[in-house]
Amino acid sequence: DQQVKQNSPSLSVQEGRISILNCDYTNSMFDYFLWYKKYPAEGPTFLISISSIKDKNEDGRFTVFLNKSAKHLSLHIVPSQPGDSAVYFCAPLIRGSARQLTFGSGTQLTVLP
Amino acid sequence: EAQVTQNPRYLITVTGKKLTVTCSQNMNHEYMSWYRQDPGLGLRQIYYSMNVEVTDKGDVPEGYKVSRKEKRNFPLILESPSPNQTSLYFCASSLGVPGVANYGYTFGSGTRLTVV
After folding, report:
1. Which of A38, A89, B18, B104 is packed most tightly, with the most Cβ within 10 A?
2. C-alpha dihedral, A24 to A110 to B87 to A29, nearest 10°
3. Residue A82 in 3-state DSSP?
4. Is B13 helix (H, G, I), strand (E, B) or coil?
5. Is the CB of A98 less than 8 angstroms away from the CB of B109?
6. Residue B22 CA neighbour count, 13 Å, CB half
7. Tens digit of pLDDT for each residue in B33-74?
């Protein structure tokens, strides 16, 4: 029973355009959401996070939106760059709970030059 | 350089032969965790440790053991590996529990394990 789903295994966008990566979750107890980025042959790296008390968090070209009622979050990358090509994982948490649940299955983003 | 170091990067072994994957971090992080990554399933937590001598099961602990005798090291032990443990393994550490005070994980580069 996957509590977090990233339904698009892959996404291709043109350089300079917007990339939108989506994540849906089922557990209403999640109150903190992280995004990780993973290049081949490397471990994931923390990208951006959002607390459930917010609906938007922005960091440079990266913005995460949270819609709690829909149990949906999305990561926007504007403008997309070829170096953004990677696998992106969303990872919801129950804040303060040490047990990290399953990450999403990831979305492979390819930014075409 | 602040990092999480896993060894080995690649390992092929036979069913039933005990093995240990080492993990070490140099950031004085309290929280460490092991994950496995499988196609279509994302990253699943195997075990985690909140501090020295404090470990607990994650989502998929069967067939694995861990120990945390020192703050910097968190080895993953497969006492009797089986082919269904063929996977990509990641060790991760965090200053505190992820999600508290914006703590995120620092991941190692991964260990590709094949059990034949």
Report:
1. A89
2. -20
3. helix
4. strand
5. no
6. 9
7. 999 999 888 889 999 998 999 999 998 999 999 999 999 999
